[in-house]
Amino acid sequence: MGNAFETCKNCEKSFKQGFSFCPYCGQKANDQLTVSVLFYNTISNYFSVDARFFKSFIPLMFKPGYLASRFVEGKRLLYLHPAQMYLFISVVFFFLFSFISRTQVEKVNNVLSSNEIPVIVHDSLKRQVIDSLKHVETTEYILKNEFSFNERKVDSLIAINAPDEQIYEAMGMEADVGFFRKKLYVQILKFYKQRNGGSLLEAFYDSVPIAMFFLLPIFAFILKLLYFKSIPFSYHLVFSLYFFAFVFMVFSLLVLIDLIWEPHSWINLLVILLITIYFYIAVLQFYRRNKLNSLFKSFIALFSFVLMVVPLAIVFMFMAAFFLY
Predict the structure, then answer these.
(1) Out of the domains of life, which is the source (predicted)?
(2) Whether residue 196 is found in the same domain as residue 125
(3) Are 185 and 173 a contacting pair, CB within 8 Å?
(4) The total number of structural domains that make up the chain
(5) Are 200 and 325 in contact (CB under 8 A)?
């Protein structure tokens, strides 16, 4: 007498009755879709990821370099994957930061509509963006350096719906102007008409995650240059993913503090010092070099990234936001 078989509803392969799960794909046999099953699967899958996240959280925060070392050693199921860790924490950070950025966008729009100058004292990145708006005057609109025009004349042309080309001429744009310079005039006029600097600021903030997508591999490449004879690039990338996950976690906590009460400047300095010390210890533990070698290469990596790569990225993000908004 032969054994009875049943067919898996997921992979449609047959197997002997008596199995609780399909031996081919792992789906539960005779799994009837009910509301309880639906929510149980959703919650169990969610918390299975969370369980690994919380198991990884303590080493990430308090054992620099530990997760990266374990991952490259082959222990890749005990802790959250570096890419998952980075993506999860970065999403949390940008979600929390959206509350601050929304407030800043509204503040910029309100300030521009009242012809006042915004004052931001606790965030250097925001200050760099807002500084570009500080040369707006009530009687005459002036963009320092190469661009200046009479506000009343331009307002009169806008009021009569004059063609943009005529307004550009009133702004001082020459007939044989190049493409890039003309694009600047186009964006300046667009900005002037709308008085909506918040959109520019919002576009800048929106470009940060995209910039980080390119900055992280660049950081890993800097480490590769410093340890070019030692390990493959993928190892540096794993290290970088965990390190930036830590950085975003610290920034998330800082944003939470900022949402509750405005922190003093010494907290920002403390955070910078904390990240620097963490990075040095992580390099020391992951790359297994002596303390002096690790200190020197940590300094070179951070110096190259913070003082060379990040400023260029900010400029490109600002230009992208300016031309795309």
Answers:
(1) Bacteria
(2) yes
(3) yes
(4) 2
(5) yes
In the block, residue with structure tokens 């800097």: 222
Query: What does each C-alpha distance from 25 to 16, 17, 31, 47 come to in angstroms?
Result: 14, 15, 13, 21
Q: pTM higher than 0.90, yes or no?
A: no
Domain that holds residue 294: 64-325
- Residue (of 203, 199, 181, 180) closest to 191 by Cα position: 199
Q: pLDDT digit of tens for each residue in the chain (325 aa)?
A: 456 778 887 777 887 777 778 877 777 777 665 666 555 655 555 555 567 788 899 999 999 999 999 998 888 778 888 988 998 898 888 888 888 767 766 665 565 555 443 433 344 444 443 444 344 343 344 344 445 666 777 777 777 778 878 887 777 777 777 766 777 777 677 766 665 555 666 666 667 777 788 889 999 999 999 987 778 889 999 999 999 999 999 999 888 888 787 766 778 788 889 999 999 999 999 998 899 999 999 999 998 888 877 777 667 666 665 555 5
Q: What single string gives the DSSP state of each residue in 71-140?
A: HHTT--SSS--HHHHHHHHHHHHHHHHHHHHHHHHHHHHHHHHTT------S-HHHHHHHGGGTTB-SSS
Task: Provide the b/e sequence for 50-74 (b: ≥16 CB within 10 Å).
Answer: eebbeebbebbeeebbbbbbbbbee
* 45, amino acid identity: N
Within a domain: 57: no
Looking at the structure, tell me whether residues 165 and 225 fall in a common domain.
yes
277 near 294, Cβ under 8 Å?
A: no
Q: Do 197 and 108 have their domain in common? A: yes
